[in-house]
Amino acid sequence: MTAQPHSGAPSPTGSHAPNSPWATGGVTFAGVLMLLNGLLVIFQGISAIAADDIYTRVGDYVYKINLTGWGWILLVLGVISVIAGWGILSGATWARVVGIALASLSLVAQFLFLPYQPLWSVFMMAIDVFVIWALAMYDPQAPPARPDQQP
User: Fold this and answer.
1) Is there a domain that residue 20 lies in?
2) Among candidates 109, 54, 115, which has minimal Cα distance to 81?
3) Are 96 and 88 a contacting pair, CB within 8 Å?
4) 1 domain-assigned
5) Of the N and C termini of the chain, which has fewer Cβ atoms inside 10 Å?
6) pTM above 0.85, yes or no
7) What radius of gyration do the chain's Cα atoms show?
């Protein structure tokens, strides 16, 4: 019995460890989530731009920025996220890198948006964490794992 490498790095023989079903399905799911998350963030940004009083404030907050400013930030992040999600579903390597960077930025943006929509922001932050994990774990050159293989 030979030891199988557990990372996505090539083994000494040049082959890659197979992707787990979670990583294989996760990257597709991450691409779809990036598309949907981008669309939702676009709508969230538009609503913040359209009416500065649409979101309620939760007392004083340390990060004071006009809600219209947040709307523009969210709108730009949403458009880039939709493009990256499409790229991930197309199998582009650049899209995985951009997706990790965007999900990280979205995570920070949603943290800063917590006082305005706490439940929504926490939900979106959980999606961002999953997207980062799925895109970082997937190796496009590795074959998918067979159901009879153990990790």
Assistant:
1) no
2) 109
3) yes
4) no
5) N
6) no
7) 19
